[in-house]
Amino acid sequence: MAKQKKNVDRRGFLRGAATGAALGAAGLIAKPTIALAQQAAQKPEAAAALAEVSSSTRCGADFMVDVIKSLGIEYCAANPGTSFRGLHESVINYGANKDPEFLTCLHEESSVALAHGYAKIEGKPMMIMAHGTVGLQHASMAIYNAYADRVPVYIILGNLLDINYRRGSADWYHSVQDAAAMVRDYTKWDDTPVSLSHFAESAVRAYNISMTPPYEPIVIVADGALQEEPITEKNLRIPKLVMSAPPQGDTGAVMEAAKLLVAAENPVIVAGRCARTAKGIDLMVELAELLQCRVQDQRLRMNFPSAHPLYATPLGDPITATVRDADVVLGLEAQEMWTITHTMTGLNTFGMESRSVMKPGAKIISISAIELNHKSNYQDFGRYDEADLSITGDAEATLPALIEAVKKVLTADRRTALQARGAKIAEAHRKARQSNLESAAVGFDASPISTARLAAEIWNQVKHEDWSLVSNDRYTSYWSTRLFDFKKPYHYIGAQGAAGIGYGAPAAVGAALANRKHGRLTVNINSDGDLNYAPGVLWTAAHHRIPLLNIIHNNRAYHQERMYIQMVAAKQNRGVDRADIGTSFTDPFINYATMAKAYGMYSEGPISDPNELGPALKRSIERVKAGEPALIDVLTQPR
Amino acid sequence: MKILLLLLACFALAAFAQTKAGDTANGQRLFEKDGCYQCHGHVGQGGVAGARLAQTRLTLTAFTAYVRHPASGGMPPFRAKVLTDQELADIYAYIKTFPEPKPVKDIPLLNQ
């Protein structure tokens, strides 16, 4: 049979073919139609005609793109998948691949972690797309990280609810009754719209929910048929996006907190995920300076300038030293207040025996919005903190009221007394900085390269740039915190959230993408174990010309786990020399510079001579400043 | 009971008295093989996971006592079954060979 060329509206054709068909799941889909594969199998001539049809009307995915554009979403990260192919095509063609622009990812975990890093710099979510089944399964760990880190991610899942649209076994494998169920325990909200108007309303609502503190990921399931079928709904409209004001703590409780803080002899502020914006840092400084009290930073956000005399450098975990002498501890979106105020005994480091480190009568005040989003299954909330005054509300949003309350309570005499306290803290800060430098000098010329030397060399190269460090610095013994001058909101973005490894490399790419339009020099000290989860994100950085300096902290092991295995072996009185088994990767040696080259990225190393590090950094930074990513593989000390 | 404790103490002292001067080469081997470096660094510089060992002021007796009964924190106790007193003496001798760091004022990268 000869092919017949017809410029037929494909969706119109399908509509005609389906006339009168009443399918079981019709109520879930905007317009019941008959499955392409099913029809083709029954009528060969119809299959030939189907191959020639084209569409001249707008499809549902086009409208979805309109909705997404209305939210101001700049990027859409995805590994391609059939269940959202309609949306993919509309993003790149109907939407002109701009706002959102498609970012090609080689793993769904990379898509989400990339969005995680982006949001912490940009202050708003990136969209990711994934299959509702296999893609989401890949993405789930990264979603949990974002959830535990209180970061918004806008997740759209593809799915085929109507069995008549499932053409073969892959479509069946990739279909699910309730796609969002798998991640409902660690997302804030989800919906499965059954019409385009439903999609529009839920998409706008989801953005609002995601961006109301506590920020969290959300999920919208975009049905495959709804994406690809023509728009038939009348009077479609996109609801207005209105952002909710963040929740603020109760005024009376805030005044009570102010009285406790002003009356305290030695109050300490513990900052977790407090500062969401540049204003948040300013407010933190204002409060600390009013109270002349120490600020203990958990390094989960850029909360407080590291060179400020009231700043307490984190040197260990849990950070109990600073709170030991406090009579009032104020937690601002602090993570696990209990861990901060308690210690495990020496006999039992596995958690069954503990004691408070607080002075008798010391008070704990907590201001946090996390109580607004507690869930049961996953235990990221930590132990019950037994605060004496617990204020539910976003800390940054509550700080202006707290500052005003402190000003009201603070008398002139008290202010003078607090200045004397502040002077003592400043002197302790100065001594701590000097002590840090003396510690950094130990092993400064060693090979493998010490993490202190690594940080000092990086600081030497970036200190006159508009820099942004986008990696967790705990794995390098907080040396960047101890040696750099952190003050701007993008100078630091914290860590994974749920301690899920594999976040570092993709989150850095996302953060660097957000920094690109501001011309900032993005630096990522990436643990080698982390990079090995999904190194394909190096290709994403190279492909999209995302300027990023990756420095591999190559300690050749999942080192935290190696230390744990060695600790358990010692406890069991056996085999302390076997902790490398299952934790290290030295044989064969992994060459990350070669790996980066394979993905099309400029690279240097492996470098083990500390004197070679500075020049390598200089050369690589020149490449990054020219607009491309680079990688330096550095053989380092373990921590 | 008191007699038993006295006997144990005597055995412990006797064992300690038999400890020879530390063998730095064997100490280096054990420092790496038994994973001391994991928390304390290959040159004893310390860090977030372990205390600095370079230029330790502890005596061998205090060092041994600490390894057997660490203060509360992340370090587990290492009993004689996994590290003998002689092996600890060797490790201690090796730790004492770690060179003095340069003064901070002589390191330009630490004077930025």
Classify the oligomer. Answer: heterodimer
Largest sheet of chain B: none
Sheet-strand content of chain A, in percent, reads 5-15%
Mean pLDDT of chain B: 87
The count of strands of chain A amounts to: 19
The count of DSSP E runs of length 2 or more, i.e. the number of strands of chain B, is 0
CATH topology of chain B: Cytochrome Bc1 Complex, Chain D, domain 2
- Taken from the alpha-carbon principal axes, the silhouette of chain B is globular
Please state how the strands of the largest beta sheet of chain A are arranged side by side. 2-1-3-4-6-5
Number of helices of chain B: 5
CATH topology of the largest domain in chain A: Rossmann fold
Can you tell me the CATH superfamily of the largest domain in chain A? Thiamin diphosphate (ThDP)-binding fold, Pyr/PP domains
Give the strand content of chain B: under 5%
Q: Determine the N-to-C terminus distance of chain A.
A: 72 Å
Uncertain segments of chain B are: 4-11
CATH class membership of the largest domain in chain A: Alpha Beta
Helix amount of chain B: 40-55%
Question: Layout of SSEs?
Answer:
The complex is a heterodimer of chains A (639) and B (112).
Chain A: H1 10-17, H2 36-42, H3 44-52, H4 60-70, E1 75-78, H5 85-94, E2 101-104, H6 108-122, E3 127-131, H7 134-148, E4 154-159, H8 169-173, E5 189-191, H9 196-210, E6 218-223, H10 224-228, H11 251-263, E7 267-271, H12 278-291, E8 294-297, E9 311-312, E10 328-332, H13 337-341, E11 342-344, E12 354-356, E13 363-368, E14 389-392, H14 395-409, H15 412-441, H16 451-462, E15 467-469, H17 479-483, H18 504-516, E16 521-527, H19 528-531, H20 537-543, E17 549-554, H21 559-571, H22 592-598, E18 602-607, H23 610-625, E19 630-635
Parallel strand pairs in A: 1-2, 1-3, 3-4, 4-6, 5-6, 7-8, 7-10, 8-9, 10-13, 13-14, 15-16, 16-17, 17-19, 18-19
Antiparallel strand pairs in A: 11-12
Helix pairs in contact in A: 2-3, 4-5, 4-9, 6-7, 6-18, 11-14, 12-14, 16-23
Chain B: H1 2-17, H2 24-33, H3 36-40, H4 60-68, H5 85-95
